[in-house]
Amino acid sequence: MKSLFYVRKSLQIKALDYCKTLNYEKIRLVLGDNNKPETEQFIVVSKVNAGELFGNLSDVDLEDSITYRINRAAFSQIASYRKIYNHNRLE
Q: If DSSP codes are grouped into helix, strand and coil, which group holds residue 42?
């Protein structure tokens, strides 16, 4: 049973890696990640502030950006899966 879990987890991570060309924000909505705590999100959002990263660059116009990373630990948490379908009833 444990080996089946690891095979499934591996396939899910590979599928998410394959989807890099897709819109991660839409994938997060399908997985319900926008309604979960960060520890249970499959894809975690990080906002990158250009000013904090590069300091004061008043003569350069840099925009803040958003990065996404796959949270591999979420794949081993049952709550991460349950909250895909019903985030209101499960805490």
A: coil
Helices and strands in the chain: count of H runs, count of E runs: 4, 2
Using an 8 Å Cβ cutoff, are 69 and 38 in contact? no
Which SS3 state, helix, strand or coil, does residue 83 take? Answer: helix
Q: What is the pTM of this model?
A: 0.64
CA distances from 39 to 36, 45, 52, 56, 63 (A): 8, 12, 25, 33, 28
Boundaries of domain holding 22: 2-85
Sign of the Cα torsion 48, 54, 55, 60 reads: negative
Q: 67 lies in a domain? A: yes
Residue 9's pLDDT band (boundaries 50, 70, 90)? Answer: low
